[in-house]
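Reminder to self: tokens first, then the designed residues, so the page reads top to bottom the way the pipeline ran.
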């Protein structure tokens, strides 16, 4: 059964959105990419990925979280009825963003992420390459984005 898409002007009813995030790098540093998958309570799924030439895996993991949270906020704004669960295989992303670990690198990224992490956001670590469908999907998206980028750059 197909549901009509009301578009971005009509936010979905409050609930929990699950954001799977991942970063990938070919060489570290080297060409890399981030990816996210948003699973909305109404069954809709949104996916995106992006790549750049000189980066690290940790940067891409953090950018994946940032881009996922930006996409969620575009739909829900500051509605307090929503919960956002970020699932990532990056212990670094979880621990840096919850401030369990000291931030020593990628300091330029945190000012763009920190305002997006509020009481509605929970982080869950998932084991990478362990068969979790959402995590496996964002891994494939990120790796594909790196391959597409390097192929397009003549690499």
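Designed residues (155 positions):
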């Amino acid at each position: 059964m197909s549901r009509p898409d009301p578009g971005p002007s009509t936010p979905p009813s409050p609930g929990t959105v699950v954001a799977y995030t991942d970063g990938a790098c070919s060489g570290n540093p080297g060409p890399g990419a981030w990816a996210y998958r948003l699973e909305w309570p109404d069954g809709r799924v949104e996916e995106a990925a992006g790549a750049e030439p000189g980066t690290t895996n940790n940067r891409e993991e953090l950018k994946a979280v940032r881009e996922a949270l930006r996409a969620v906020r575009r739909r829900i704004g500051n509605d307090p009825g929503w919960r956002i669960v970020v699932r990532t295989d990056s212990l670094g992303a979880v621990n840096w963003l919850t401030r369990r670990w000291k931030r020593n690198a990628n300091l330029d990224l945190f000012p763009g992420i920190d305002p997006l992490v509020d009481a509605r956001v929970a982080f869950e670590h998932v084991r990478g390459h362990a068969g979790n469908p959402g995590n496996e999907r964002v891994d494939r998206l990120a790796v594909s984005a790196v391959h597409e980028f390097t192929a397009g750059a003549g690499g």
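The first strand starts at residue 16 and ends at 25.
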